[in-house]
Design goal:
Layout (H helix, E strand, L loop, with lengths): L1 H17 L4 E6 L2 E4 L34 H4 L10 E4 L3 E6 L8 E7 L18 E6 L1 E3 L7 E3 H7 L3 E5 L7 E11 L10 E12 L7 H4 L41
Parallel strand pairs: 3-11
Antiparallel strand pairs: 1-2, 1-4, 4-9, 5-6, 5-10, 7-8, 10-11
The structure holds 2-acetamido-2-deoxy-beta-D-glucopyranose (2 copies) and copper (II) ion.
One 2-acetamido-2-deoxy-beta-D-glucopyranose binds next to helix 3 and strand 9.
Length: 255
């Protein structure tokens, strides 16, 4: 028995340590940007020479929604570049792999100095707003007609498309994109969060969104006992609150 069970335990540890993920590539305004690559980048410590912030936790999840690591990951110090992104355009995140079920959602925050994001961590400012979310969503290929957003992402080559609101003011922003894994989320602290941030310069926006009126804090907007966080994955899909945890996505004011 012992001889058999030891290799099995070992195999399952190996499988689970590989079974996480991160955004490998961003596509914005027709340009591709590589990100920090945990474990394969030759210099493991430096931020990427790009727009994506360092992932101090590598491909591993955040477990405490109230920790500052929920903002942009552990040690997410500023990256050297900003991508140019047109307000109203669609950007694409490509994950290296995504082996879990759960929702996908994205927030943004302006960087307060108005020039770049070099002095902004975002952990204490009430300037985050959600721009998109997808939990259990309609999916024609699923037999029930519903599936997790992450299944759609997986079927699309681990890509996820995010439309940047038209109503932003031009300037520097962080984009915070996140998947959540629910396989252990039936207990408090069991949900896994995979947030990561990229730096962008938005232009062409209509400047009609009042961020002061809609802004939330991260950590803060996602709570350990949110219905979308504390959820038993053995329950039917239709029991999941259709939306991701946290506040609802902003709606651009009609002008
Ligand atoms: C963004 O646009 C500015 C102005 O055209 C340019 O100088 C800068 O290199 C661009 N950034 C990137 C990452 O392409
Ligand atoms: C995202 O957009 C790309 C390019 O249009 C497309 O190939 C891909 O299927 C899309 N992904 C999803 C999840 O819709
Ligand atoms: Cu994982």
């Amino acid at each position: 028995m012992v001889l058999i069970s030891i290799p099995l335990v070992f195999a399952s540890l190996v499988a689970s340590s590989a079974a996480h993920g991160h955004v490998r590539k961003w596509r914005m305004n027709g340009k591709s940007y590589t990100t920090y690559e945990p474990y394969s980048q030759p210099d493991f410590k430096q931020p990427p020479k790009g727009i994506a912030r360092f992932l101090g936790n590598g491909i591993n999840p955040m477990k405490d929604p109230l920790s500052p690591a929920m903002t942009c990951n552990v040690d997410s110090y500023p990256a050297p570049l900003m991508a140019n992104v047109t307000a109203g355009s669609t950007i694409t995140a490509t994950w290296n792999s995504w082996p879990h079920v759960g929702p996908i959602y994205t927030y943004m925050s302006p960087c307060p100095n108005g020039r770049d994001c070099s002095d902004f961590l975002g952990t204490t400012s009430r300037t985050w707003f959600k721009i998109e979310e997808a939990g259990v969503v309609p999916y024609a290929y699923a037999s029930s007609g519903l599936d997790w957003a992450t299944q759609i992402m997986y079927d699309a080559g681990n890509t996820w498309n995010i439309t940047i609101p038209k109503c932003l003011s031009d300037g520097p922003y962080l984009i915070r994109h996140e998947t959540m894994a629910i396989q252990d989320s039936n207990v408090l602290g069991g949900a896994q969060f995979y947030p990561q941030c990229a730096q962008v310069w938005i232009s062409g926006g209509s400047a009609t969104l009042d961020i002061g009126a809609v802004g939330v804090q991260l950590p803060g907007d996602i709570q350990p006992d949110d219905a979308g966080v504390l959820f038993d994955p053995r329950k039917p899909l239709t029991d999941y609150v259709y939306k991701a945890p946290g506040s609802r996505p902003i709606v651009c004011p009609s002008v």
